[in-house]
């Protein structure tokens, strides 16, 4: 299995490895099928940008690092319900949201690394909620290295799930952090710490952020974690960057937007090359990433010419020099 841009889909040798959903979470096309050109056009019209597929090259790659699909969809549905209730001034499904926090914490804790399902693999109407879930998953992965208590982890997760809630209430996007904070701080079941994750997730350590222009340690660590995850997820889902490109972009913000210490933790916890990525090495050979064990930046590679599998962590002189798209790899 591997993740590809929908433009790279080829019905001659690829089949779907994950279902495609519409805005009502109905299955448009199930796993194990090829996509007829007519359906492919309709899917593109939904602005779905990514597909999980399987072909001969990626056969046998299980992507165990990938978040559990039903858990991911259930969390998206719950965030959707919460946003809807806020917009309609209805009773909030806070208990249901807290339950999803526990499930997401468990989901991340049992994996060495987390591979995201891009929000842009769903119909446009679901992406805002998928974005919040993905930001939460990334934040929880970073949190593994921060020696947090269980309560702190849950507060971080809840704050990340609701970091954009102000967009439902604010007249302008620029003010959504403050508006979201003012709303969340009045909910008894939401801690002040979770509310501050929402309040400060657009602040920057150099003082260039919003809404208050906080600097350095004036910004809570949890808000910085959310901010890093937010920028990374947007880079992949909205801007279409590949994971290694998004990682490099995040690294350029070290010491300006984000603390160097947290960026270093992020690099240790989030892989640049996910399973299914086809790569070229510094010895000129081509391979495909098969799994992540140990060092997340030094995955296992299967050579395309011999199918021999090696660990980059055990072969220190081998380096990935290029990520190959479908056209370069065929």
TrEMBL record:
A Pfam family of this chain: HD
Gene3D superfamilies per UniProt: Hypothetical protein af1432
Segment forming the signal sequence: none
Superkingdom, natural source: Bacteria
InterPro entries in alphabetical order: HD/PDEase_dom (IPR003607), HD_domain (IPR006674), HD_GYP_dom (IPR037522), HDIG_dom (IPR006675)
Entries under CDD domains matching the protein: HDc
Protein name (record): Nucleotidyltransferase with HDIG domain
Lineage, highest ranks first: Bacteria, Bacillati, Bacillota, Bacilli, Bacillales
